[in-house]
């Protein structure tokens, strides 16, 4: 039952917003009593923590699945972007990360510290792969480019209220990041991926 509550709560939080969804809403959606929810979660904050942790885990499992498909480095980044777009397309108008930062800053800080570790690893592996594939320049300072990119992405998500706008700016950031690193072959691959995009 605990897992079902977390799954339903995650779904509602992402669709309607962390602030607006109440314990009554979750109970109503599941046709259970609020008392049943409180049996597993002493308050809404604990439920939000568990929900964000579950979404975080799902996101990274999907990213791992994409990485295992062994696309080239640039294609891989576009596939991951597409996955995020699909995952959050039924969202509230407000970006979930922006809401979390505004209404539940402590939970947000916990999420952020985990995310930075995970993203640093993905970005580093992607850059190393792109260099091996001759799509990225061999002389890159990998640490600096990893830091540039996650600073850019987190800044967009923290400060952009609209989820749609955040996704549009993220696409621009991905193009910007890729162009900064790409060899002539990398630019050709980037142009190919951009032609396939639907925002």
From TrEMBL:
<dbReference type="Pfam" id="PF00440">
    <property type="entry name" value="TetR_N"/>
</dbReference>
<dbReference type="GO" id="GO:0003677">
    <property type="term" value="F:DNA binding"/>
</dbReference>
<feature type="DNA-binding region" description="H-T-H motif">
    <location>
        <begin position="22"/>
        <end position="41"/>
    </location>
</feature>
<dbReference type="InterPro" id="IPR050624">
    <property type="entry name" value="HTH-type_Tx_Regulator"/>
</dbReference>
<protein>
    <submittedName>
        <fullName>TetR/AcrR family transcriptional regulator</fullName>
    </submittedName>
</protein>
<keyword id="KW-0238">DNA-binding</keyword>
<dbReference type="InterPro" id="IPR009057">
    <property type="entry name" value="Homeodomain-like_sf"/>
</dbReference>
<dbReference type="InterPro" id="IPR001647">
    <property type="entry name" value="HTH_TetR"/>
</dbReference>
<feature type="domain" description="HTH tetR-type">
    <location>
        <begin position="1"/>
        <end position="59"/>
    </location>
</feature>
